Amino acid sequence: MGTGYTYQCKNCLRMGSLTFGAGMLWYDYENVKSALHWQFRRQLEEFEKVNGYSSKEYSLNLYTCPKCKTIHSRFWLRATSQDGKIFETIFKCPKCKRKLEEVDEEEFDNKNYACQNCGQFEIEYITESTWD
Question: What is the pTM of this model?
Answer without folding.
Answer: 0.86
